C-alpha cells in the first residue's frame, strides 16, 4: 500500500475565489505583508492586522470548496494506503470538501491564539486587539496563523511522513516559500516518486519526476481518478 504525501498551496483554492499572493488585484496587494504578516507588524499595529484577517476570514467563509478539494478528500477516503494532506493554506476548504485530516503547517483562519500564554480557541468572525484570552484573560489575542519569520507547525511530523513516502505530490504551490519548497528534495532523497500538479511550472519544477499543468479543478480530479482506477 503506497504512502502518499500531498502538499497544497494557494493554487488549489484560487478557483474558489481565494486569491493567491501573486494575484494582481487580490487582497494581499492592498496591504504591505511586513505590516500584516509578521510579528513585528502585529506589535506595531495589532488593529490593522486584525482588520486584515477579519477580511480574509469573511472572504473564506463566503467561498466554497471546489472539485480539487473534493477529489483529494475522495483520495483520502478510497486510497488503500496512507494519504497525508499537508496544506500551506489557512482556509478550511479541504475540511469542507470532505477531508477529515488536514495538517495546516501555516495555521488556520478559524483559529485564535493568545500571544501571552499560547492558549488556542475557535476564532470569532471579528477579532480585535482588546479581546481577552479565554485562558489567561490577557488582551493578547492574535490569529492562529504562521507569519513570516515564525516556524511552521507540525514540521517534525511532516518530515517523518516525507521520509516514509512512496509518492510526494505538490499541488498549486509557487515553489519559492521554504521550508515547503524543500519538501520535494526530502521526499526524493528518501526514494519517493515526485509529481507536480500546478497551473504552470513552479520555480522548483525541475526537481520533480513528472508534472501536469492546468487548472486545479481539472487536473487534480483527473489524477485522483487515475490513481484510484
From TrEMBL:
- Subcellular localization, as worded in the UniProt entry: Cytoplasm
What main location does UniProt list? cytoplasm
> Could you tell me the keywords of this UniProt record?
Cytoplasm, Metal-binding, NAD, Transferase, Zinc
User: What is this enzyme's catalytic activity, as reactions?
Assistant: N(6)-succinyl-L-lysyl-[protein] + NAD(+) + H2O = 2''-O-succinyl-ADP-D-ribose + nicotinamide + L-lysyl-[protein]; N(6)-acetyl-L-lysyl-[protein] + NAD(+) + H2O = 2''-O-acetyl-ADP-D-ribose + nicotinamide + L-lysyl-[protein]
The UniProt record gives the binding positions of NAD(+) as: 9-28, 88-91, 172-174, 198-200, 216
Q: State the CDD domains in the record.
A: SIRT5_Af1_CobB
Q: What is its EC number?
A: 2.3.1.286
Q: Which residues form a coiled coil?
A: none
Which Pfam families does the entry link to?
A: SIR2
Identify the enzyme class: transferase
Question: Which molecular-function annotation in GO is an example for this chain?
Answer: NAD+ binding
Give the residues annotated as active site.
106 (proton acceptor)
Amino-acid positions noted as binding substrate in the UniProt annotation, renumbered to this chain: 53, 56
Free-text comment on the cofactor: Binds 1 zinc ion per subunit.
Instruction: Output the PROSITE patterns linked to this UniProt entry.
Output: SIRTUIN (PS50305)
Please quote what the entry notes about the protein's domains.
2 residues (Tyr-53 and Arg-56) present in a large hydrophobic pocket are probably involved in substrate specificity. They are important for desuccinylation activity, but dispensable for deacetylation activity.
Kindly give the HAMAP family that the UniProt entry links to this protein: Sirtuin_ClassIII
| General function of this protein | NAD-dependent lysine deacetylase and desuccinylase that specifically removes acetyl and succinyl groups on target proteins. Modulates the activities of several proteins which are inactive in their acylated form.
The protein depicted here goes by the name NAD-dependent protein deacylase
Q: Report which gene this protein is encoded by.
A: cobB
Amino acid at each position: 500500500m503506497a504512502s502518499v504525501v500531498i502538499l497544497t498551496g494557494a493554487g488549489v483554492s484560487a478557483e474558489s475565489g481565494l486569491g493567491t499572493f501573486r494575484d494582481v488585484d487580490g487582497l494581499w496587494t492592498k496591504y504591505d505583508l511586513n505590516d500584516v504578516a509578521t510579528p513585528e507588524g502585529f506589535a506595531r499595529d495589532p488593529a490593522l492586522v486584525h482588520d486584515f484577517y477579519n477580511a480574509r476570514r469573511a472572504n473564506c467563509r463566503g467561498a466554497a470548496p471546489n472539485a480539487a478539494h473534493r477529489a483529494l478528500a475522495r483520495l483520502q477516503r478510497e486510497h488503500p494506503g496512507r494519504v497525508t494532506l499537508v496544506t500551506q493554506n489557512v482556509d478550511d476548504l479541504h475540511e469542507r470538501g470532505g477531508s477529515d485530516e488536514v495538517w495546516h503547517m501555516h495555521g488556520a483562519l478559524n483559529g485564535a491564539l493568545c500571544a501571552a500564554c499560547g492558549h488556542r480557541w475557535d476564532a470569532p468572525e471579528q477579532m480585535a486587539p482588546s479581546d481577552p484570552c479565554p485562558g489567561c484573560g490577557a488582551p493578547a489575542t492574535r490569529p492562529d496563523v504562521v507569519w513570516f519569520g515564525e516556524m511552521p507547525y507540525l514540521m517534525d511530523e511532516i518530515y517523518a511522513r516525507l521520509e516514509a513516502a512512496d509518492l510526494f505530490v505538490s499541488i498549486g504551490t509557487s515553489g519559492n516559500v521554504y521550508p515547503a519548497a524543500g519538501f520535494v528534495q526530502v521526499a526524493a532523497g528518501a526514494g519517493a516518486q515526485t509529481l507536480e500538479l500546478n497551473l504552470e511550472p513552479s520555480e522548483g519544477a525541475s526537481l520533480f519526476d513528472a508534472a501536469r499543468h492546468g487548472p486545479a479543478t481539472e487536473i487534480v480530479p483527473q489524477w485522483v481518478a487515475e490513481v484510484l482506477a
